[in-house]
# Entry
Amino acid sequence: MTGGRFARQEILPELGPGAQRRLGEARVLVVGCGALGSHTAAALLRAGVRRLILVDRDILELHNLHRVALYTESDVGRPKAEALAGRLRAVDGEAEIEVHVAHFGPHEAEELVPRVDLVVDGLDNMESRYLLNDACLKHGVPWIYTAVLGTAGMMMPIVPGEGPCLRCLFPSPPPPGTLPTCATHGILGPVPKALGALQAAVAVRLLVNDGGLVGRLFQFDLWGMEFRELSVPRRGDCPACARGEYEFLREGSRTVTLCGDAVHILPRSREPVDLGELARRLAGLGKVRRGQGVLFFDVDGASFTVFPDGRAIVKGVKDPARAQALYDQYIAR
Ligand SMILES: [Zn+2]
# Structure
């Protein structure tokens, strides 16, 4: 069955049966299962990368559907990583899909990155990308920086020891909340699909040990159909890849401002939360509703989505400090 499935790809002179086998043996981490991550994961799996680890902290919302892969209306309200895993297993019954419904923080980065051959970027914020960059450099794992916004996207393959890293390209992260996001500037539906396909193609090339794309930043505008390529030099004073200072791997702030005018809050402890008990405790204080594996709580103009691991996504509050204060008041004990 395996031979037939990839027959049209194996006959490519760039690949062949040996390369196809390597794809089947490779393990790839997909960080973020929104539009970019779902398209990349779907394209990789169909191309024969059958061992995937999916990480995403969020639930699927109706306004995601115009740009994502595989998800349907029945997945709205479900954790993205879980829903995507189910769709991918339906595409390929032999696939090994591991799911983490979790925030990609230093703990997850240190645990998951060393286990894989490559990481693909489905992230929606720069803070998490700097963390991913540090983890990949520390553990010598290649990754592909990929970002989408509006009608455009960009991509740069990063291979530790062989070329520039994210901090050679952008030395410091911008202050949280200053970059345009999909929520503030919008996104054209087909853009993540295009960039997901490009990222998957580069991933296949890196997995079969062809590193010819290192040190090149590719930019695409799908409205004007403009494609540009820039050569990115390695910086001799890069804190991450030259000096080995992995500062983003240290436990940092408990709040992250998300794409979508929301604040993500990490719990102080790693103890799981009993959502049933929390629902009873909050019942008289605001509007409480149970979702699939999550709890919704509205109070003081803020809308919380609380996950069983204690994380929360807060909407309706732009100031991270106020979101944190409301979390500490109502959710934390
Ligand atoms: Zn660097």
The first strand starts at residue 27 and ends at 31.
